[in-house]
């Protein structure tokens, strides 16, 4: 305890440093420097802080270091719920959107109507949070139920993610056309169109949905659709999605932007 008090006193003291110049026999005193008290950060000194592991898990997800995962860990359900419903998720989305908008404004367009921006839909332009917040879904901590999710999609009630809607409106105002590429099946085209328009996405060059019998992975499917765009003469200026499978593969575009999503993984 005595040594701790001594260290604390030392760190809190205003220190004057005296430096002697032996070559010129000149002694001078430096400016007074204040050394502030240091505070231990959360989780330091070997203490385990609740939910700290969940933050690390989310970081691994967003950086694509953790792949092919099936469920949000049950111990992280509350953490993910608080994150996705709280201001941090909104701020994270806004940071992505601001970077995308800044980039879009800097791009020199071809002027021939062939510049496009590719958008994913689920958890990018539209949010399924009302579904994932349900007790029988538990923010992705309960196994995925395709029947239940499709029933939710069929309601056409998914709201826009406001910051990404801002990206959409900005790129249109700049003269960049928009293309939606989604893993949603073709049978949901009508309800998806209605939902997109209701949420504020009213104009696009193409809305590409996945065929009913298409068994390709998301990476293969989306790569092929982007390849078709490029072959048709389009230039993909930007590409934004919540899954890494939206942003890897072929013909990614000049820039890609990752929207946070710790709710599920699509490979």
UniProtKB/TrEMBL annotation:
GO terms for molecular function: acid phosphatase activity. InterPro entries: Acid_phosphat_B-like (IPR005519), Acid_phosphatase_pln (IPR010028), APS1/VSP (IPR014403), HAD-like_sf (IPR036412), HAD_sf (IPR023214). Signal peptide: none annotated. Coiled coil: none annotated. Keywords: Glycoprotein, Signal. Belongs to the APS1/VSP family. This is Acid phosphatase 1-like.
């Amino acid at each position: 305890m005595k040594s701790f008090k001594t260290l604390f006193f030392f760190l809190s003291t205003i220190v004057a440093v005296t430096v002697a110049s032996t070559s010129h026999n000149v002694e001078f005193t430096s400016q007074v420097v204040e050394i502030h008290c240091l505070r231990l950060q959360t989780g330091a000194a070997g203490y385990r802080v609740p939910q700290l592991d969940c933050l690390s898990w989310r970081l691994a997800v967003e950086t694509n270091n953790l792949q092919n995962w099936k469920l949000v860990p049950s111990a992280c359900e509350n953490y993910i719920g608080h994150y996705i419903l709280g201001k941090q998720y909104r701020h994270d989305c806004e940071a992505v959107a601001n970077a995308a908008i800044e980039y879009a404004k800097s791009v020199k367009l071809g002027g021939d109507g062939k510049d496009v921006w590719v958008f994913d839909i689920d958890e990018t332009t539209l949010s399924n949070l009302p579904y994932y917040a349900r007790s029988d879904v538990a923010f992705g901590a309960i196994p995925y139920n395709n029947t239940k999710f499709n029933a939710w999609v069929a309601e056409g009630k998914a709201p826009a993610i406001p910051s990404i809607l801002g990206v959409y409106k900005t790129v249109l105002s700049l003269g960049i056309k928009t293309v939606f590429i989604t893993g949603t099946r073709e049978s949901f085209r009508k309800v998806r169109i209605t939902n997109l328009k209701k949420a504020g996405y009213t104009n696009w060059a193409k809305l590409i949905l996945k065929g009913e019998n298409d068994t390709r992975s998301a990476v293969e499917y989306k790569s092929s659709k982007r390849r078709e765009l490029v072959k048709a003469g389009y230039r993909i200026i930007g590409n934004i999605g919540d899954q890494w499978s939206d942003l890897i593969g072929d013909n990614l575009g000049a820039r890609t932007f990752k929207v946070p999503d710790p709710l599920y993984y699509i490979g």
